[in-house]
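User: Sequence recovery, please. Input:
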């Protein structure tokens, strides 16, 4: 009997030791000009146990007329309804900005970035504070003069202080810098860090920047977000899938020597790339009308189709004979990509695994159970 108990105990302990030692931080990218969650969005956040979101606050582009970098496309509204994921402000800076701007302009830009992030943070807090104010339940004797004064004063003071307290833990800077622009970009990152003394500053790392770190350089930030998608240009007619393939990913993640702690970003979207006479005509992000029309869309290969009639998709006019390449990362390919990443990059319970992007259409297309399994695979 003692031997049987010992064997069972050994099996239990052995099986426990094989369990994962970490759970990654579940994250999504949100890349639209409005963030206004509905109940369905809240439900998806809860079902997926999403703890974090990179939210695009604004872009910075080079203005050729003013000959200076200017913020554009600032997010207009952030209302998370019942959800409360941690938010990391994300700022996209075009490579043209760091190629054209001088040091004085970069100094000024860093200050303006900090101010704009602060202001958007205050706007978010005002929305939260208004919700808190509307939810306050006052006691029965609230309208007695002494209680009215005390409770009203305390509540207003707490809400006003909450509006002003902007304490983002991290700021993400997104720029596809080049070997030629890296010095200016790295200088800008150093200036940006001065404006966020209590927050970490992170930077996106493209796959070529990871593989060829000696040429691209290592940005002077606290950590990086490795972008494991958009490996080739969609306008290339011969491309199989410009969003990415596991075979291409393996050609870039070839070492484990990158000198920054890395979070991971993977694709969770699809689109239709349109060609006319083998020439690129554009990208359709909403192509359900096409995908469901088996009469007007004739399959020519695994991912390519030929249009059989003139058709209006949204506000895009397509012609008979146009070739459509439907691009999406299959479940099998995503599993392979995760294995490749894990083989070279250290993953722990501080690692954010982020999917691009948070959109009900894409999430429902892949399925919440599958997406949860992708997180769990790390």
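Assistant: Recovered sequence (378 residues):
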């Amino acid at each position: 009997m003692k031997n049987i108990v010992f064997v069972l105990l050994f099996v239990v302990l052995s099986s426990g030791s094989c369990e994962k030692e970490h759970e990654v931080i579940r994250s999504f990218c949100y890349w639209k000009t409005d963030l206004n969650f509905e109940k369905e969005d809240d439900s998806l956040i809860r079902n997926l146990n999403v703890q974090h979101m990179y939210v695009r606050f604004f872009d910075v582009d080079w203005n050729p007329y003013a000959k200076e970098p200017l913020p554009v496309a600032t997010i207009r509204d952030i209302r998370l309804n019942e959800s409360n994921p941690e938010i990391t402000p994300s700022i996209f800076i075009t490579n043209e900005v760091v190629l054209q701007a001088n040091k004085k302009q970069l100094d000024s830009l860093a200050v303006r970035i900090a101010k704009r992030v602060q202001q958007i943070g205050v706007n978010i807090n005002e929305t939260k504070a208004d919700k808190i104010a509307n939810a306050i339940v006052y006691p029965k004797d609230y309208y007695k003069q002494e209680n009215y004064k005390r409770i009203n004063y305390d509540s207003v003071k707490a809400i006003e202080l909450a509006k002003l307290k902007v304490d983002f833990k991290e700021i993400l800077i997104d720029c596809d810098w080049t070997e030629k622009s890296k010095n200016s970009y790295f200088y800008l990152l150093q200036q940006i860090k001065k404006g966020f003394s209590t927050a970490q500053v992170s930077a996106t790392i493209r796959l070529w920047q990871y593989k060829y770190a000696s040429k691209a350089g290592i940005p002077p930030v606290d950590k990086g977000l490795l972008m494991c998608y958009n490996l080739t240009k969609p306008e290339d007619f011969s491309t199989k899938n410009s969003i990415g393939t596991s075979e291409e990913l393996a050609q870039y993640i070839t070492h484990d020597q990158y000198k920054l702690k890395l979070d991971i970003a993977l694709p969770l979207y699809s689109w239709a790339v349109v060609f006319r006479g083998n020439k690129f005509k554009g990208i359709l992000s909403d192509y359900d009308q096409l995908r469901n029309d088996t009469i007007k869309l004739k399959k020519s290969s695994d991912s390519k189709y030929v249009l059989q009639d003139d058709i209006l998709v949204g506000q895009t006019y397509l012609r008979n004979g146009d070739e459509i390449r439907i691009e999406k990362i299959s479940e099998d390919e995503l599993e392979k990509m995760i294995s490749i990443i894990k083989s070279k990059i250290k993953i722990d319970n501080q690692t954010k695994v982020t999917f691009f992007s948070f959109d009900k259409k894409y999430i429902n297309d892949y399925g919440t159970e599958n997406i949860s399994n992708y997180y769990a695979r790390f």
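The first strand starts at residue 25 and ends at 30.
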